[in-house]
């Protein structure tokens, strides 16, 4: 397991610089999320976990290769907070 902190959105959020926040999100998509999805799709990764942290709480999202075929399924709202 590898833990990586990606603080690219923190400062723009605090400063309410939404153009810079948007650019940071696009960079995260290009540099981290798209490659992680590609690695999950081709089997290089068995799963990925993303932990999103806020001021007072956090949520961890877990995805496996099999989950990529379940995009049409609706999840119960409560399951998003487990």
> How many whole angstroms does the radius of gyration measure?
15 Å
Domain count: the total is 1
Structural class: alpha+beta
Number of strands: 2
Major sheet description:
2 strands, antiparallel
Fraction in beta strands:
15-25%
Protein name: Regulator
Explain the overall architecture.
- 35% of the residues lie in helices and 17% in strands.
- The chain has 82 residues and is an alpha+beta fold.
- The longest helix is centred in the middle third of the chain and has 24 residues, at 18-41.
- It contains two helices and two strands, in the order H-H-E-E.
- Strand 1 and strand 2 form a beta hairpin.
- The chain has one domain.
- A two-stranded antiparallel sheet has the order 1-2.
Q: Can you give me a brief rundown of this structure?
A:
The chain has two helices and two strands, in the order H-H-E-E.
Keywords:
82 residues, alpha+beta, two-stranded antiparallel sheet, Regulator
SSE layout:
Blueprint (H helix, E strand, L loop, with lengths): L9 H5 L3 H24 L5 E7 L4 E7 L18
Antiparallel strand pairs: 1-2
């Amino acid at each position: 397991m590898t833990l990586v902190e990606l603080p690219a959105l923190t400062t723009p959020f605090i400063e309410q610089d939404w153009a810079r926040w948007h650019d940071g999100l696009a960079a995260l998509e290009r540099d981290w999320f798209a490659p992680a999805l590609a690695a999950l799709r081709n089997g290089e990764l068995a799963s990925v976990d993303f932990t999103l942290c806020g001021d007072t709480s956090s949520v961890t999202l877990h995805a496996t290769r099999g989950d990529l075929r379940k995009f049409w399924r609706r999840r119960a709202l409560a399951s998003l907070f487990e």
